[in-house]
Amino acid sequence: MVSAAPRSGTGVRLLRGVEIAAQVRETVSADVADFRSEHGYTPALAVVIAGRDAPSTVYLHKILDGCRLVGVEDRLVELPDDCSAERMSAELAALSRDPHVAGIIVQQPLPREIPLRAVIDALDPARDIDGIHPLNAGLLALGYEGFLPATAHAAVELLRRSGIPLAGRRAVVVGRSNVVGKPAALLLLREDCTVTVCHSRTPDLALELRAADIVVVAAGRPGLITGDMLKPGAVVVDVGINVVDGRLVGDVDFASAATVASAIAPVPGGVGPLTNAILLTHLMRAARNLAEGRLDAGTRSLHPAPSALGAGG
Ligand code: NAP
């Protein structure tokens, strides 16, 4: 698969997650070393995968490589394709009892036999560093500090760290999934944007987009957004990951968008590389919370006993 970052050539600014990710990883590496000398162990990130579909395997290896780069322990738990929901729950409960495991990620898509609900019920929200548990989703919706879905967090962090002004600007998010679109919209709202969320039933996507200063696209539809749909000077963050003719592409038609937008986070090289680095910052926050017996400010009064959520310990 070809995965070279697009070149601008048009004067459009490229928002490169690769460079920001390297800075974030440097900070995390130092934090891991401090943590080890303070607590005498290295925190672990557990990645649970049931069955192997090609895209999630690629993503999985990137997570494991990221762990090694910053010196955190990685625990890969590989379950068979025909793994039952009970077996998955038992694995998650065991990981949640391990004091060294600070973060747990369950790779999606799940096998058909395992409903997402079964995973969520068994996942300790204090170790849910990719923000899939309803407690963390609720904290985000209410404006408290829980764990954010890493991709949405990376998309907004890329804008912030690139110095793109957000407060008071009109943002359109294309996509309303629980993992990307909805949390990205809530985070932009937190940044004081005026936010519109579009989806497959939005009658006139271009009409919405032409009013937007900031566009975040997470639809999984290659070429969905073209330059003629954008407001001149818009800042575009392409979150889509698609493979077309063996090439990795986003949801935005880069060539036409680059003639209209002022800045684009491209695919590849934009949000993707930053996502894993952001995930590691979540891991270290979880590790400190667990090791120091503290919950985040927002979760302190809202965090139910783990047993009430079926977390098993
Ligand atoms: P998803 O669950 O399939 O959601 C896609 C969303 O896009 C849905 O809300 C859907 O609307 C909307 N949509 C689909 N076609 C549309 C159209 N023609 N016009 C407007 N909206 C449309 O996907 P996801 O998990 O959010 O992922 C979205 C993309 O991000 C995928 O390409 C995925 O691979 C990528 N991704 C990237 C990262 C990363 O690290 N960069 C991480 C996760 C995902 P409805 O709700 O109406 O169906």
Provide a compact summary of the structure.
This protein is α/β, with parallel strands linked by helices and 313 residues long. The protein contains eleven helices and eleven strands. Strands 1-11-8-7-5-6 form a six-stranded parallel sheet. A three-stranded parallel sheet has the order 3-2-4, with helices on both faces.
What's the helix and strand layout?
Blueprint: E1 13-14, H1 17-39, E2 44-50, H2 54-70, E3 73-79, H3 85-97, E4 101-106, H4 116-122, H5 134-142, H6 150-161, E5 170-174, H7 181-190, E6 194-198, H8 205-209, E7 214-217, E8 235-238, E9 242-244, E10 247-249, H9 254-257, E11 263-265, H10 271-291, H11 297-300
Parallel strand pairs: 1-11, 2-3, 2-4, 5-6, 5-7, 7-8, 8-11
Antiparallel strand pairs: 9-10
Helix pairs in contact: 1-10, 3-4, 6-7, 6-10
Bound molecules: NADP nicotinamide-adenine-dinucleotide phosphate.
Residues 151, 174-177, 179-181, 198-202, 205, 218-221, 224, 239-242, 271-272, 275 line the site of NADP nicotinamide-adenine-dinucleotide phosphate.
Question: Would you kindly provide a written description of the structure presented here, covering whatever features stand out?
Answer:
A six-stranded parallel beta sheet has the order 1-11-8-7-5-6. The longest helix has 23 residues. The protein contains eleven helices and eleven strands. α3 packs parallel to α4 and α6 crosses α10. The C terminus is likely disordered. It is globular. It is α/β, with parallel strands linked by helices and 313 residues long. It binds NADP nicotinamide-adenine-dinucleotide phosphate.
